[in-house]
Amino acid sequence: MIEVEVKAIVKDFEEVRKKLTQIGAVKIKTEYQSDVYYNAPHKDFGETDEALRIREIPENGKTRVILTYKGAKLDNISKTRKEIEVDVSDAENTSLILENLNFRRAASVKKNRDIYHIKEFIITLDTVQDVGTYVEIETEANEDEDTSESIKKIYDIYKQLGIEEGFERRSYLELIGID
């Protein structure tokens, strides 16, 4: 699966929330996410623009754990990249497996996220610890699909939200100073 994503820094979510309602976006949920990123023993993900993380999301008294691999960005105007996710049941043992394979913890990213849905797009309002406040708009594509039309639609949604600058291709991991 290809994740087609564009992110923009914003100062305040209040106006964004109003415009999300005006364009028909529906708030799905709010969640807290704690991510631990790893670097590989055989290559530097900072150099290859890849990422490997374990994400923990507390939900209804349990914690959902997701292992995610993200490939290098596929274009120069978005954060479009291959993404592979798998639900795992135990963050601690998943971490131990990676560490026993000589993967090293690189950094942690913690964020509160309000999640909205409109058509085939997910819009998140992220408050990222030690980084700032961002809006992310994303959708999915098949690996053989041309993603340019999806990217255009994402920028159209940003325009409807009144966001026409502040676009950021760096990941939250890069923004906290870890390449």
Topology:
Elements: E1 2-9, H1 14-22, E2 26-39, H2 45-48, E3 51-59, E4 62-73, E5 81-88, H3 91-100, E6 104-118, E7 121-128, E8 132-141, H4 148-160, E9 167-168, H5 172-175
Antiparallel strand pairs: 1-5, 1-8, 1-9, 2-3, 2-6, 3-4, 4-5, 6-7, 7-8
Describe this structure in words.
22% of the residues lie in helices and 48% in strands. It has 179 residues and is α+β, with helices and mostly antiparallel strands. The protein has a single domain (2-175), classed as Hypothetical Protein Pfu-838710-001 (Beta Barrel). Strand 3 (51-59) and strand 4 form a beta hairpin. The chain is globular, with a radius of gyration of 16 Å. The model has no long low-confidence stretch (mean pLDDT 96).
Give a concise summary.
With 179 residues, the protein is of the alpha+beta class. The protein contains 5 helices and 9 strands.
Characteristics:
single chain, 179 residues, alpha+beta, Hypothetical Protein Pfu-838710-001, 8-stranded antiparallel beta barrel, 9 strands, globular
Radius of gyration: 16 Å
Can you identify the CATH class? Mainly Beta
- Give the helix proportion (percent range): 10-25%
For the sheet with most strands, the description reads: 8 strands, antiparallel, barrel
